[in-house]
Structures are given as C-alpha cells and as structure tokens.
Task: structure prediction
Amino acid sequence: MTERDLLRTALIIPPKGRAVLCVWAAVPGVFCAPFVFWQSLFAGCIFCALWACLVFAAWARACSFTAVLTARNIAVRAGIAVPITRQLPRRAVTGVWTLRTPLLWLAGCSVLVVHGPGVQLFLPGVDALQAQALAAVLMEETP
Result:
C-alpha cells in the first residue's frame, strides 16, 4: 500500500478488530461478575446489564471510528452522538509503533500508536497492512 492509496482511503476498524475491542472490554466484567453475584443475585444481574451496555457502547464507538491521512495531517474522528475530530500535523510526528497481541494477530489487525509533542494518538484495531503502511509513511517525514 502506497502513500497515494492511504490518501484516498480512510482507516476504519474492520469487524474482526471491533470484535477484539469488545472482547477486551468484556473480559474485566467476566472476571468481576462472580464477586458481584456472590453479594446478591439482583446486584449481579444489574452489574451484568450495565457491563453489557458498556461493551455495546465500545462497539458503537468502534463502528464510528475513522482515521484519514491528508497531505498535511492525520485526522481521527470518533463519536456516537457527537463526533469529535482530532488532528495531528504530519510534521509533528516523532514516533510510530504498532502493537499486535495474539488476539489481534488472529484478527489480522493491530494497534497503531502515533507519538507527537505532548500527544499520543491510539488507532485501535486497524487492519495490519494499513497500519504498517501508515507507520512507514509517517516515519518517512520525521526529521
């Protein structure tokens, strides 16, 4: 994938990447639920319902996530009701690294972390090939 291809497309989280993010959000609730059920059945049911709402909110936010590479900056837009756009100038990028856990590797995704002065931009669950290409493009311009 070239820089021209990245400029024409937006990075989105594919369905397998969204599934990995939902698993990451659900795991702490699965471990905590027995302790809440130990207190009372009603509290356990309420806890599980609230945690399911949290996982659904994480899935909905992952569905609304897009990252766009332009000639001057990288813009990330995410949000359910009120989308928020964050922009980081390409010349301000000081470092880029990718993270691939075994679960992300099975899904063909990775987490891309872009470092800038005073900011860390996390692009979670994006396609691994797009993440590697974006990292290469951003690091080409780093002085």
About this structure: The mean pLDDT is 88. The longest helix spans residues 15-39.
